[in-house]
Amino acid sequence: MTSEGIYRILLKAYPTRYRRHYEEAMAQCFRDQLRAADTMNERIRLWFRTIADFALSAPARHFDLALNISYANAYSEGARRAIYLAQLEKGPFSYGEISLEQLLLGALRSDEELNSALLGSDGIDTLVSMVRAWETKKVAPPSPLLRWGRRHRRAGTLDLDCKKALAFARREAHDSGTSVSSRHILLGILEQETSQAARTLRDCARNLTSLRPSPARDNPRP
Amino acid sequence: MKTLTPAVFHILLALADQDRHGYGIMLEVAERTNQQVRMGPGTLYGTLKRMLDGGLIEEGGERVDPDLNDERRRYYRMTRQGRRAAAAEAERLQALVRVARAKSVLKTA
Predict the structure, then answer these.
(1) Over chain A, what is the mean pLDDT?
(2) What are the residues facing B22 on neighbouring strands?
(3) CA-to-CA distance for B10 and A221, rounded, in angstroms?
(4) What are the helix and strand counts (H, E) for chain A?
């Protein structure tokens, strides 16, 4: 059996859904590496690297899939992107959880069409600077112990306002028979009426009525 | 911005100047890091999938790479979001290097 044949057997250990999209590309990549490994020594080193890569990545893909199945059923790709982008908005050195303002920026950045409909061509920049300015005014918790606790226990998770906004978004999506979209998330943020994020969105947005999603426009729930 | 993982940052840097296919990204990362970072196909495509899901990169169609052979390859390109994330990560690292220099951990060039 050829090296590529053995590698293709290893690839069977990845989740089927993942293989459907990446199996050929991964086999092609391995074939390219084999072609570039001229000597027996290089081939042996390649196999060591490949087995280590396989041992780490195959279980990781199964874990990702298990974690994402229920999440993917409830949230559209755009909404998942919004949450991911909200995580990216979070400063690496800042303590605490992901705030509603960061979720707002994530939701707007996840959907360019919605973003320009709501804020116009350069609206997001104004909104980003408003959020940044407001974030710097936030007062850090006074106790060093509390600050340490917040940084280590909660960093990277959604804060209570975000969870409330997402719960509202899920209810809205359920009522309209679709997956949660970025529009639903923005509606959830607006629902937190007294929050800074809702006030900022109300101040900056041109036309909030365009937020109300139609079932035809959003992804039907799988 | 949240810290990017080293694999994500390496891939974004590889895609900063041109679209590349998987093997092309692998070669570029290995070359730029003096063969210190060598991603296998499992790590590479797992990371690419997460980056696609997060909107940091997008697929740019399939075509032949004339430098390799006549097989068709799927190309990836960096999105505006990806460029923003890479710039933020580079600035974060630059700030850390400044601190390291100020504390004489790193000698000034």
Answers:
(1) 80
(2) none
(3) 35
(4) 11, 0
In whole angstroms, give the CA distance from residue B78 to residue B56: 6
Looking at the complex, does the CB of residue A91 fall below 8 Å from at least one CB of chain B? Answer: yes
Q: Does B72 touch chain A (CB under 8 A)?
A: no
What does each of the 109 residues of chain B score in pLDDT, given as a tens digit?
557 889 999 999 999 999 999 999 999 999 999 989 999 999 999 999 989 887 889 998 889 888 888 889 999 999 988 998 899 899 999 999 999 988 888 876 6
Determine whether the interchain pair A57/B92 forms a contact, defined as Cβ–Cβ distance below 8 Å.
no
Q: What letter represents residue A31's amino acid?
A: R
C-alpha span between A184 and B98 (Å, rounded): 42
CA distances from A108 to A5, A66, A100, A118, A189 (A): 46, 28, 12, 9, 11
Q: Is B55 left (phi over 0), alpha (psi -120 to 50) or beta?
A: left
Residue in chain B nearest A60 by alpha carbon: B46
Which residue do the tokens 């169609």 mark?
B61
Nearest-angstrom CA–CA distance, A181 and A48: 43
| In the predicted structure, residue A213 carries a pLDDT above the cut 60 | no
A61 backbone dihedrals φ, ψ, rounded to 5°: -70, -35
Which residues from A are below 8 Å from B73, CB to CB?
A: 25, 28
Q: Which of A83-92, A103-112, A124-133, B71-80 has the highest mean pLDDT?
A: B71-80
pLDDT for the residue numbered B8: 93
Q: Say whether residue A87 is in contact with chain B using an 8 A CB cutoff.
A: yes
Tokens 């729930």 correspond to A221
d(CA A78, CA A82): 6
Q: How far is A56 from chain B (nearest CA, A)?
A: 8
Confidence of residue A93 (pLDDT cuts 50, 70, 90): very low
Chain B residues inside the 8 Å CB shell of A22: 45, 49
